[in-house]
Amino acid sequence: MTMDSGKSELVYHGRRAQRADSRQRRKAILEATLRLIVKEGIRGIRHRAVAREASVPLAATTYYFKDLNDLISDAFTYFVEQGLEHTRQLQEDSFAAARNLSPEDRASGAGRKLLIQQLTRFILTHVRNQAGNRDFRLIELAFRNEALRSAQLTAAIRAANNATEALIQEFFELLGLADPQAAVQIVHGTILNLEYQILSGAASIDSPLLERTVTMMVKGLIPMGATATEPELLD
Fold first, then answer.
1. Can you tell me the distance from the alpha carbon of 78 to that of 22, in angstroms, rounded to the nearest whole number?
2. What does the pLDDT look like over 31-62, one tens digit per residue?
3. How far apart are CA 207 and CA 187, in angstroms?
4. Are 126 and 90 a contacting pair, CB within 8 Å?
5. Around Cβ 55, how many Cβ atoms within 10 Å?
6. Where are the alpha helices (DSSP H) in the chain?
7. For 9, which DSSP code?
8. Integer Cα distance of 92 and 48 in angstroms
9. What are phi and psi of 14, to 5 degrees?
């Protein structure tokens, strides 16, 4: 299924469900898989354990997911889709004013200041929303660690990253940044790091350090009064 701007695709590998009751059962299996990951980690995912958690017959899990790799990969895809809906809505709310600016207004000092403020607010809200759900972050970290052992899950992680980064890249394109892709990598990396700092207890979700960090990063990427020029490369 194609996500925003067609820049990334999230793909399901297990057997598709046609009827409404079958789709509900398949969804129950995926949600049970996510709950088990919170309790036991990905290594605890087995057909029998998932069937028990989902309150479905064992035959149902093996029908939709003959391969455990498909079950794990599809559970991640389902997990990402739920999160992207919230991120997409946050993006719509945060970037609405920016989209209404004319190119001339975006290039002005006041316009660029507004864009920087909106991007900072978007990042801070996103980080706090994400880090505020500890179980979801444990699930995400479990998937990312398991992807180091699974090529199929690595592809799903990459697609998920691309989908999230496409939402951020639009902002840098509005700003006319010369290298929006590089800017997106910096922002996404900072988001993941801040979420981990909060999850591990190294930083509070309401810490002023979060706002200072994000503000410094955004101002560094888009200094006031700067023009969109080609990035300088090291020799």
1. 16
2. 999 999 999 999 889 999 999 999 999 999 99
3. 19
4. yes
5. 9
6. 20-40, 47-54, 58-64, 68-99, 103-107, 109-131, 134-146, 151-175, 180-199, 208-221
7. B
8. 41
9. -70, 180
